[in-house]
Amino acid sequence: MSAPRKQIHLAAHFPGVNNTTVWSDPAAGSHIEFESFVHMARTAERAKFDLFFLAEGLRLREQGGLIHDLDVVGRPDTFAVLSALAAVTGRLGLTGTINSTFNEPYEVARQFASLDHLSDGRAGWNVVTSWDAFTGENFRRGGFLPEQDRYERARSFLSAASLLFDSWRTGDVAVDVDAGRFLSRAGAGDFAYRDRHFDISGRFDVPRSPQGRPVVLQAGDSEEGREFAAASADAIFTRHATLDAGREFYADVKGRLAAHGRRPEDLVVLPAATFVLGDTDADAEEKAALVRRQQVSGRTAILTAEQLWNRDLSAYDPDGPLPEVDPIPGENTVARGRASTRMHRDPVATAHRWRELAEAKGLSLRELVIEVSGRQTFVGSARTVADTIDDLVQRDAADGFILVPHVTPGGLDEFADTVVPLLQERGAFRADYEGPTLRHHLGLRTDSGRHRERGAG
Question: Which sites bind FMN (predicted)?
């Protein structure tokens, strides 16, 4: 008797805070009007997706001292959007990115516990860190935190927040991380937590929510990020969406769980993925090439190159050769507030690789940027894309995918109407929701004291 098919998890990423959105498309709509959020969330729920995901930026991005006009400028607050969506959806998970560097555990725990109540157990928290002083200028705390300490604060932040979530279950709780002590007394909602980052005590004023605590998501590919996810996250976002890279990442993070007393099924691996669909594979490939040229205009190509070269390249022709000068090493002073400014560990070596690739393939600067920044994961007919997604999941390259459409807000519609039914036909994706909470959707244990116990040292 053959084993049952591994079930695929699907999530919807609201486009905008990334470089994949095509705002010039006639079908593109607002990234601020509430109807845009409603449209995509209802499409995802109609297709029985696990969750809807909102990214977040804490400062407007700049390049050359000016607002980066090829990126999203502003977005409504994450909690406001997700709380409003709770009223117009019934089963879809509602997850958002909230920073652990420039917030406080009590405030964030209170907001997520409230969202979990308002949504009847559908809240999810993508825990991220920030270390740059540019973003920190918006906060009293400023850019004080060295990069190497950001995950330590994140772990402490999550332990403190989890203590608050659990305080209505365990009664009065106290943790002294430095002394390695955990105390439990009769009561409801009282807490105390102390380590080098936090010294807080009081009474948590939101009763235990339907999930007990929100689902914790994490995005990070570094050694610290993988270990943080293995110890503390319920799901991890990754950029590794191809078979070989996906299987390597999947085996690595799943292999870390046992050291933290966890099972492989306690962490869901979800690569981010884009898609272009067509009536045939050839039709999809033609559309994909057009989308890539829409995503990378000549101006976008120059700005992207400036982020690597760390210098003004406005005098260069995007349809000409790459700059012969090397990037300026050290802190990136051209582009600020963008994750891409930290992606190139060795800019000079990267520039050399780009030149070699451009020479070998006869690529202009714009064509090179299209080549190296391409993020079209699934391209083909609906059946081809369904086959590919199913194959990657069944072969343990992922547990599912976070889909990032290139058009807002209707870019998910075609996938929901054509690919999802094919996955359902083969028994690899749910025909309906089987439980009320996000933990049910992701196949996670619904109640666990592991964060509290680990936080006690």
Answer: 97, 151, 222
| Residue whose C-alpha is closest to residue 19's, from 299, 421, 206, 332 | 299
* Residue 209 per-residue DSSP state: P
Instruction: Specify whether 190 is located in the same domain as 304.
Output: no
pLDDT digits (tens, 9 = 90+) for 158-188: 999 998 888 886 544 454 455 544 444 445 6
What is the distance between the alpha carbons of residues 26 and 49, in angstroms, rounded to a whole number?
Answer: 26
| Contact between residue 136 and residue 130 where contact means Cβ atoms under 8 Å apart | yes
* Domain end call among 351, 372, 393: 372
Q: Is 284 part of a structural domain of the chain?
A: no
- pLDDT value for 452: 33
Is position 222 annotated in a ligand binding site?
A: yes
Q: Is residue 316 marked as binding?
A: no
Number of separate domains in the chain: 2
Question: How far is residue 149's CA from residue 161's CA, in Å, rounded to a whole number?
Answer: 18
Residues 129 and 156: beta-carbon distance below 8 Å:
no
Task: Tell me the CA end-to-end span of the chain in Å, nearest whole number.
Answer: 45
Phi, psi for residue 185 in degrees, rounded to 5: -135, 165
